[in-house]
Amino acid sequence: MPLLTTSDGSTTIYSDQYGVTYHSIHGAVTESAHVFINAGLRYKAVVQQDIAILETGFGTGLNAFLTKIEAERRNLNVRYTGLEIQPIQTWEAAELDYAEALLVPEQKGLFLSLHQCAWEAVHELSDNFTFQKCQTPIQEFLAEEKFDIIYFDAFAPQAQPELWTEAVFAHMYASLKPDGVLVTYCAQGAFKRTLKKVGFTVERLEGPPGKREMTRATK
Ligand SMILES: C[S@@+](CC[C@H](N)C(=O)[O-])C[C@H]1O[C@@H](n2cnc3c(N)ncnc32)[C@H](O)[C@@H]1O
Fold first, then answer.
1. Residues 6+ apart with CB under 8 A from 13
2. Which pLDDT belongs to residue 99?
3. In testing the pocket of ligand 1, which one of 4, 14, 56, 142 has its CB within 8 Å of the most ligand atoms?
């Protein structure tokens, strides 16, 4: 898939199939850090140290990598589950070079291990980061344990309307613990109405560069 450089200098990829990029062209790392790390992980880390995260979909692994780095910095214990039905190749991940972009070249091996490790198995990637990736569609994922945070990072509703339905968000709601949060870059009105309909309390937050708003929804 074609590799692009975004406004903050970090890379992303373009999906020919869906006609969209995996991240904002206004900054891939900036968007992931703003939406998922800042509004999700840091928000929860204020009140708890043990945090279970579900990501849909895992894609380039950027959100998982940022989470691992943040967990180390803040001494958090993270259990991370990523769902992905069309994994990228390890050589594509290597070209994205997120360890260099994040100024942690010593973590390059760790980033690649997110891609190289076996699907479905649970991996203790460090003392404070347990990682599992599953080739299960969001629509079919049945959580054995509940999560504190959902990083909802599917392609946009225009590209994949089948993932932004009441049934999917009812399922996301059921997969969260009480007070759990779902964070996403999307702030469309119809989407927020769906979140409210299935029981979420919805907050509008300032968006990353190029987007006025983003959404955090609390169970
Ligand atoms: C916006 S991109 C991923 C961004 C990703 N979080 C990252 O940092 O690279 C959306 C991802 O969802 C995956 N996807 C599409 N349909 C899916 C489904 N039904 N279940 C799980 N993942 C899906 C795509 O293959 C793609 O990797």
1. 1, 2, 3, 4, 21, 22, 60, 88, 92, 96
2. 96
3. 56
**Cβ of 60 below 6 Å from ligand 1:** yes
Give, for 15, the enclosing helix (H) or strand (E): strand 11-15
Domains in the chain, CATH or no CATH each: 27-218 (3.40.50.150)
Average confidence (pLDDT) over 95-119: 95
At 143, the pLDDT band (50, 70, 90 cuts) reads: confident
- C-alpha to C-alpha distance for 219 and 108, rounded to whole angstroms: 36
Residue 85 CB–ligand 1 contact under 6 Å: yes
Take atom 11 of ligand 1 and give the residue whose Cα is closest.
57
Q: Is the CB of 83 under 6 A from ligand 1?
A: yes
The mean pLDDT value for 49-62 works out to 97
